[in-house]
Amino acid sequence: MNDRVTPPMHATPDGEAELSLVVKLPWEDVARLGQEAGRLASQMQRPVTLDEAVSHRLRSVRSAAHAKPAGEQPAPVTSTASVSSLPPRPPAEQARQAIERINGSA
């Protein structure tokens, strides 16, 4: 048994949070992350780890998802259904959708 205990999350000096986790991915997705790391490394003119590539991809997906055209107003809520009334998604489906968002194919 591994006696090392890693805190699940901690603050970094630059004002961000660092989260450690283990993700099981198919080799194709690992290869895509490697390609992303290669693109990022050539852009930054230095070696880049897969961790950095994942962080960069998540930030770019998040910023793209939150970007809205100027003057766009939020859509009015027309349904009173709560999130809890939705059927839970199986973990495999949640993982597939997360990977699609990371890969930009969603």
Q: Please, how many helices?
A: 3
Which outline best applies?
A: globular
Can you list the strand order of the major beta sheet?
Answer: 1-2
| pLDDT averaged over residues | 74
Q: pLDDT under 50 segments (min length 5)?
A: 73-85
Order of helices and strands: EEHHH
Percentage of residues in helical conformation: 40-55%
General description of the model:
The chain is mainly alpha-helical and 106 residues long. It has three helices and two strands. A two-stranded antiparallel sheet has the order 1-2. A hairpin with a 5-residue loop joins strand 1 and strand 2. Helix 1 packs across helix 2. The longest helix has 18 residues. It starts with 8 loop residues before the first strand and ends with a helix. About 12% of the residues have low confidence.
Offer a quick outline of the entry:
By secondary structure, the chain is mainly alpha-helical. 45% of the residues lie in helices and 6% in strands.
List the topology elements:
Blueprint: E1 9-11, E2 17-19, H1 27-44, H2 50-66, H3 91-103
Antiparallel strand pairs: 1-2
Helix pairs in contact: 1-2
Attribute tags:
106 residues; mainly alpha; two-stranded antiparallel ribbon; 6% strand; globular
